[in-house]
Amino acid sequence: MNRTMKIALFGPPGAGKGTQAKYIVEKFNIPQISTGDLLRAQVREGTPLGKMAKEFMDKGALVPNEVVIEMMKERISDGDCSKGFILDGFPRALSQAEALSGIVKLDAVVNIVVDESALVRRITGRRMCKCGGTFHVDFNPPKQTDICDQCGASLYQRDDDKEETVLSRLEVYRSQTEPLVEYYGKEDIVHDFDGNRQIDQISSDILGFLSKLEG
Description:
This protein is α/β, with parallel strands linked by helices and 215 residues long. It has eight helices and seven strands. Helix 6 packs across helix 7.
């Protein structure tokens, strides 16, 4: 790799960010960093930042930006980030983006764009089983309606996947992310990818773009 590849991955709930992040990690051998993983690791290890975060988490409160930013600063200074990294789910607010810019300059923002109606269908159609089986009423339906193919138990829909919750999550994403797209757009590093297509088509475009970025 001739240059570092410091990337932020944007996309609404259900856009397939996690799937695309895995492809990027495998091809370019850079770590995927999410604030959720960072928080859990710091709390589990009992670090000073982890103890501070746990106080807020135990109260059901959001962990302050200052704590999250400090965790991020520590994480991207680790050796496995020397060639770059991919941020998944961070930054989520303009204040976080501004704080991040004081630590590191991103090379690109990969923005997966999906029609809202398609997202709602994707998410609300998910069905889960207690055995770990996952299905989708449109794309991967069980052989018998609402019955798990693997163990025969009844399938259920997660609360997070119900339409009212999905629409609320999408509204939050829009209100938080549009300012971020504008913020990074001023640096001319936002690159949109059509997320309404098949997974392999999306990944082919993203990986092709990043290969050129790699130089």
